[in-house]
Design a protein that fits this description.
5 helices; alpha+beta; 5 strands
């Protein structure tokens, strides 16, 4: 049996007519900002105070897009008669977002919680060399990092918090008791 001439055209027009009556799902970005899910991976923010320059993030990065420079400083002894200590001081922390594949390995391996996901995603540049963001820009994105989700009320209290509470209660009880020499 021979195909009817124009059958394909009629099927195509039927699809067009069916979809014309449906509501469009296209959002008019940038006029309408998208509704992002919580904990969206946008850009990496740096909480510089927590960075100890351990270099784990740079070593574990599969793209080698994290650049860290530091120097050692001598810290005077905390108590008289103590010894001086040395510590690393962060000079440069940069991430090249033209190389980054947003895998999050650097955030996961950071033992001191210095790196976080920020939901910020509007950081396009006209020149690829401008996609290497230094620590000042990474620090700015920390303000957009959402607070961590609340703990489950049925979960056990973390050991660190329980230990801190016990210590605080002991100190409060010791201060509340009158001294032995008081009369």
């Amino acid at each position: 049996m021979a195909p009817i001439p124009g059958a394909g055209l009629a099927k195509g027009l039927a699809v067009t007519l069916r979809t014309m009556t449906r509501k469009s799902v296209t959002e008019q970005y940038p006029e309408a900002q998208p509704e992002l899910p919580p904990r969206t991976r946008g850009v990496i923010g740096l909480f510089e105070e927590n960075c100890t320059v351990c270099m784990l993030c740079a070593r574990e990065c599969p793209d080698w897009c994290i650049y860290i420079d530091s120097h050692k400083e001598t810290v005077p002894p905390a108590a008289p008669g103590g010894r001086e200590r040395s510590r690393n001081v962060l000079d440069r922390f940069a991430i090249d977002f033209s190389l980054c594949m947003y895998c999050g390995i650097c955030i996961e391996v950071c033992p001191f919680d210095a790196l976080f996901w920020s939901p910020e995603f509007e950081y396009a540049e006209t020149d690829i060399r401008d996609l290497t963001h230094e620590r000042d820009k990474l620090r700015e994105w920390m303000w957009t990092v959402p607070a961590p989700p609340a703990l489950d009320p049925a979960a056990e209290e973390p050991k660190e918090i329980a230990a801190a509470r016990k210590t605080a209660e002991k100190l409060a009880a010791a201060q509340a008791e009158p001294g032995e020499g008081d009369a």
